[in-house]
Amino acid sequence: MGVSVELITFDAAGKVFDALKRGAWDVAFLAIDPARATEIVFTAPYVVIEGAYLVPTDSLLRTNQDVDRNGVRVAVGNKSAYDLYLTRTLKNVQLIRVPTSPDAIDVFLRDKLEVAAGVKLPLIQFAKTNPNVRVMDGRFMVIEQAMGTPKGREAGALYLREFVEEMKASGFVAKGLEKSGQGDAAVAPRAPVQ
C-alpha cells in the first residue's frame, strides 16, 4: 500500500478502545462487541476464543448459570470483551474490574472472590498449577477477535474485511495460531459475502 506502519501495543483491550478517542491508531485487533461497534467498523472475526470462569475447588457454583446470583463477586479485566459481555448479561453479581485481564486471577486469589472471568486456556493452565481452583465446564461466551478501523473509513473497512478473509483462507491465521501456541483460539469460519 506504500504507507509506513507503526505498531502500538496495549496491555488491555479497554486501553485500545480508549486510545481511539485520541486518534492513536488506524487499525486495531480487538474483540467484537456492540459497545465498541458504536465507534469501530469491525471485520468478520479471524479467530474465536472461549470465555470461562475460574472458581475455588470447593465452590458450590457448578454451572455457568449458577454464577449470576447475589453475593457472587467476579474479577474481570476492565473493558475486556468479557467485562462488556458480563455487564450486559449478568444482573445479580458484583463485577470487580481490575486494570488488565491477567490481574483478575491475582485479585480473585488475594481477595478470596467467588469467580474470575477470562480466556479459557490461560485459566486452565493456571488451574493445573494450583489445586485450590478449577475451571467451570463449558464457556459463558465466545470471544470473536477481529480487525477494526474507526467509523467513517469505508474504503479502509472494505480492505480489512477482504484482508481478513484472505488470511483465513490462505492458512496464515491457522499457522500463526500454531506457531504462537495459541491453542485457546480457533480460526473463525469464512464470513458470508456481503
Q: What count of domains describes the coordinates? A: 2
Radius of gyration: 18 Å
Distinct helical segment count: 6
CATH architectural grouping of the largest domain = 3-Layer(aba) Sandwich
CATH superfamily of the largest domain: Periplasmic binding protein-like II
List keywords for this structure.
9-stranded mixed β-sheet; D-Maltodextrin-Binding Protein, domain 2; globular; alpha+beta; 6 helices
Description:
The chain has helices spanning 13-20, 81-89, 101-110, 120-129, 154-169, 172-180, and strands at residues 28-31, 40-42, 47-56, 73-77, 94-98, 115-119, 133-135, 141-150, 185-187. Strands 1, 2, 3, 4, 5, 6, 7, 8 and 9 form a 9-stranded mixed beta sheet that branches. The chain is built from 6 helices and 9 strands. It folds into 2 domains: 13-47 and 143-187, D-Maltodextrin-Binding Protein, domain 2 (3-Layer(aba) Sandwich), CATH 3.40.190; 49-141, Periplasmic binding protein-like II (D-Maltodextrin-Binding Protein, domain 2). With 194 residues, it is α+β, with helices and mostly antiparallel strands. α2 (81-89) links the parallel β4 (73-77) and β5 (94-98). The radius of gyration is 18 Å and the shape is globular. The longest helix is centred in the last third of the chain and has 16 residues, at 154-169.
Short description:
Helix content is 32%, strand content 25%.
Give the SSE layout.
Layout: H1 13-20, E1 28-31, E2 40-42, E3 47-56, E4 73-77, H2 81-89, E5 94-98, H3 101-110, E6 115-119, H4 120-129, E7 133-135, E8 141-150, H5 154-169, H6 172-180, E9 185-187
Parallel strand pairs: 4-5, 4-6
Antiparallel strand pairs: 1-8, 2-8, 3-6, 3-7, 3-8, 3-9
